[in-house]
Amino acid sequence: MGQKDRNTSLERKWANEKNVGSGCGPFTRGSQTGGTMGGMLNEETIELIKGILPDEWETKARELGAFERGRVVKTALDLLVLVLLYVTSGKSIGGTSSILKSSGEMAMNKNAVNERLAKSEAWVKWLAENISLNGGFISARPGWLAYRRVTVADATEESASDKGKTAYRLHYLADIFTLDCVEAKVTDYRTGEKLGNYEAIGAGDIVLGDRAYGTIQSMEYVAGRGADYLVRLRSDAFKLYDGDGREVEIWKRIRRMDGAAYKVMDLHYKSEGELRPVRICVYRKTEAQMEKSERKRFYDHYVIVATSLMESAERILELYRLRWQIETLFKRLKSIFGLDEMKAKTDGGVKLWFYCKLLLAAICETLDNMGRFSPCAQLSLGPGQQVE
């Protein structure tokens, strides 16, 4: 079974609505297995999840205002199950309420579900961040970035399942060290991936992006807001020039790296007829990295980024590697995103939905790395850093 098939199988285990009520998935409506919230989550999955939750997760639920003991949601674990139900089988506030009511003992109307979830946003974000930190998906902030916000831009598209509906795209800007959702918006599919989509980019920020954002338009937008950009460069993105306005073919300069791991080129691009400075940093992939690559073209041997940062090549590429580090988490988020339709419409609702999906992605990725939900998986992650 290939990696893609394994991922699809894992995600279907979490989000296939047909499993609800069948007893064959983690959410088993009316299950006789006991469990939490009237058997909405089976015992095996509960134990797996509890094994990877960060220390003080229950205390944080109270501290962050997410949990207040009630008649229906009696424990922090009950609240976690409610969150996971919302982003898998529930699909919406109303859908979640309907499933809870049909369980026969978990009756919560839409307003009650909405209030519980809204109060849980900070806690859900804290859980996603700490599970990701313990799982190695995010790193501690380097000292040289102590006073700068570093964000990563990405987007994912959902094709509408009902005929006549327009597909839509979720654009999100997230803090790479805290997983804070700095900005999230939903557009139709005609709105492309560009850094100009984000109004939250501010002075002093550093914005990371993949090849889709490696355009003059995106770079100029970020620079115009007093921020720095660091984006992956396509080989045909735009023309580059030296200080005298002569066109530069960077592949010729890359060939002269003579085995060096890094190379920095201070070049220019043209905008409105003027030369504008840009730094091009090149990293030569190792033989081991190339063996894993499916493509073997010349440019596939290198990682080439464009940036306005005046740091060393080592620092710049170290920072871009941090984007690679959380790429698996975002890929999981994108896969889970495509399994059901988002019903949230308000800014607050979209952010809550993003954090809930991010938590689900972190749980899936962690459990997958530890044995893909195997009942005999060793769940101890050992001592890890924890974000206050």
Can you give a write-up of this model?
The chain is α+β, with helices and mostly antiparallel strands. The chain folds into two domains: 3-137 and 345-369, no CATH class; 143-330, Transposase Inhibitor Protein From Tn5, Chain A, domain 1. Helices cover 38% and strands 17% of the residues. It has helices spanning 3-15, 43-50, 57-63, 76-90, 93-102, 110-119, 121-134, 216-224, 250-255, 287-292, 313-337, 347-369, and strands at 150-158, 168-175, 181-188, 206-209, 228-232, 240-241, 247-248, 262-271, 274-284, 302-307. The strands form two sheets. The chain has an eight-stranded mixed sheet, with helices on both faces. A two-stranded antiparallel ribbon has the order 6-7. A hairpin with a 5-residue loop joins strand 6 (240-241) and strand 7 (247-248). Helix 4 (76-90) packs across helix 5. The longest helix has 25 residues, at 313-337. The radius of gyration is 23 Å and the shape is elongated. Residues 1-35 and 372-388 have low confidence and may be disordered.
| Topology-level CATH name of the largest domain | Transposase Inhibitor Protein From Tn5, Chain A, domain 1
Q: Name the CATH homologous superfamily of the largest domain.
A: Transposase Inhibitor Protein From Tn5, Chain A, domain 1
Low-confidence stretches: 1-35, 372-388
- Give the overall form: elongated
Q: In total, how many beta strands?
A: 10
CATH architecture identity of the largest domain: Alpha-Beta Complex
Characterize the largest beta sheet: strand count, sense, and whether it forms a barrel. Answer: 8 strands, mixed
**Tally of structural domains:** 2
